[in-house]
């Protein structure tokens, strides 16, 4: 029998125990910051300095953060499963790749990259974008922005994601509240394709009832345990 094709969707809860805050719920980033101001194209047009400040702050947090046991478990799944494992993350940190994950889509972009609004080139970036550096590709000035997807913008590589969801045998959603589309709709897409669907989260997400199997607890506990069970053939795939 061919090895199961697996799509894993991850959200902020996966990186919470690496010290990166989640967005919703008590202490979430959207409690302190107005997302209309810091995470929309309109907010950026109104006040680029404020938006750059928000992402500079988060870039600083990233420098302190290291992958946790859940990131390493998912990298191990990719390496040891023997069939395709595609990880689609909503996270803009770089912790999946730091743990060794390679077949990865950053659907909401990457904090450690900058995008030129004039020519569309994306570059690795660690500096303060408000300094107004010229685009290294086209030379335009004042056109660089964080290479992240803001509310109202199209997430990245959607065609490839839907293609994988349409043929997957197993869909696993980890550490996401299931409130932001299109990612929140992936479980229904996988279900339509006949996949077994699993939610791993601290507590039931908005869409918990859409999953066939659920496990609740901290990602660093439940993800390694679930990956072990999968690799040992003890979990449904
Ligand atoms: N282990 C597992 N799950 C956790 C943990 C943990 N240690 N800590 C928190 N969680 C869960 C929460 O219970 C919540 O359901 O992670 C989820 C985080 O939800 P959100 O903060 O809404 O993050 P996410 O779903 O990734 O947000 C989606 O919204 O703001 C936008 O672009 C941003 O990519 C983000 C998108």
UniProtKB/TrEMBL annotation:
InterPro entries noted in UniProt: DHS-like_NAD/FAD-binding_dom, NAD-dep_sirtuin_deacylases, Sirtuin, Sirtuin_cat_small_dom_sf, Sirtuin_class_III, Ssirtuin_cat_dom
Listed EC numbers: 2.3.1.286
Subcellular location: Cytoplasm
Main location per the UniProt record: cytoplasm
Active site: 108
Protein origin, superkingdom: Bacteria
Xref: Pfam families: SIR2 (PF02146)
Tagged with keyword Cell division: no
Cofactor(s) of this protein: Zn(2+)
Domain notes: 2 residues (Tyr-55 and Arg-58) present in a large hydrophobic pocket are probably involved in substrate specificity. They are important for desuccinylation activity, but dispensable for deacetylation activity.
Name under which the protein is recorded: NAD-dependent protein deacylase
Lineage: Bacteria, Pseudomonadati, Pseudomonadota, Alphaproteobacteria, Hyphomicrobiales
